[in-house]
Amino acid sequence: MIRYLLQKGIIVMAFFVLHTPSGLSGQEQTAKFDFPDIPGYHTLVCDFHMHTVFSDGLVWPTVRIEEAIKEGLDAISITEHIEYQNSYLAGDHNQSFNIAKKRADKKGLILIKGAEITRSMPPGHFNAIFLEDANTLDVESWQDALRIANEQGAFVFWNHPGWRQPDEIPIWYEEHSWLLSKGWIQGIEIVNETSYYPLAHQWALDSNLCMLGNSDVHDALYMFFDPCNGEHRPVTLVFAKERTAEGIREALDNKRTAIYFKNSLYGNEEFLKPLFLASVTELVGVTTGAHADPVYCLQNNSSMTFELAHADNKGIESEPFLLSPSEIIESNSGFLNTYAKVIIKNVWIAPGKNIEIAR
To answer: Which pLDDT value is given to residue 14?
Structure first.
């Protein structure tokens, strides 16, 4: 055990472990999502795509609230299929929202009214969230359904673009170009359930679409994602000015999102860089005793394990190492400022392109 005097004058006692696993138990692996805020914004953890028994899901709407609370989500949207209603519960398309809303309000979870417009490909499936009335989307024409959603002021995004495509590779059809030209599509899932779509990631960048990643969960959450084996639902991180539904909507309209999927982050460098720098901080202190030597450590303030490497002026990269959640490890002097660049190997700002922190 070593005593450190931090630059802020705070004395702390801690064990420092170099590149070792955090040793979480199965129970602890169900811990909540935890990502720090970034300058100017709250980092909100959201899932905008899921189902209940009111369409083709297997759980009651209030179960979705309890699952989200357990994992520390800030907001969800229950998006029942307009076209796939449970025959025993058919009727009002707003039913699942109405049932879940009271529990969400009591628990402090932001619940956003939504629905899934479920048509064959092309154009495929679309979620409309921030709806006023889901019943109005129950029309014959998909064009009318998407028009009505937009007239209500909904935020519309294309779901799982690789769905029912050969090898699950997304195809951009003329119908999608038409929707984009009309301004009737504002986002796209680059991650859905267990799939990441690099093409959709690039389309989002090229067409200025908001990037989303959602669970599309139909089963009970832990029947599908196994936290004891390190699995978690994909979530959309929303960088909002305030922790409200209105704050989330404003952030989506301005494309301030990132996706946490498996053990990777995807999104725009504008938001991923400050998120990394808020998550991984450098502690600088001195040892006490006869010799006051400086000590440098990296601390991970998030629930994600980061894979880090560095490169010299010639571009030669080091072997990557892992920095686990809540872990503090010794590092070379001024890790983030010593090397020509630091590469975060599991944070992606474009397909195949990692974020880099240059000196």
So the answer is: 35
pLDDT tens-digit profile of 14-65?
333 333 333 333 334 445 899 999 999 999 999 999 999 999 999 999 999 9
Report the distance separating Cα 163 and Cα 51, nearest Å: 17
Lowest-confidence segment of 44-53, 135-144, 229-238, 291-300 by average pLDDT: 291-300
Evaluate if residue 4 carries a pLDDT over 60.
no
The model carries a pTM of 0.89
* Predicted pLDDT of residue 42: 98
For 246, the token pair is 């209105």
Q: Sort 245 into a burial class: Cβ within 10 Å, 0-12 / 13-18 / 19+.
A: middle
Q: What is the CA radius of gyration of the chain?
A: 22
CA distance 154 to 136: 12
| Residue 290: predicted pLDDT | 63
**Cβ-Cβ contacts under 8 Å for 289 (sequence gap 6 or more):** none
Calculated CA dihedral for residues 264, 22, 284, 334, nearest 10 degrees: -40
Neighbour-count burial for 178-196, b at 16+ CB within 10 Å, e otherwise = ebbeeebbbbbbbbbbebb
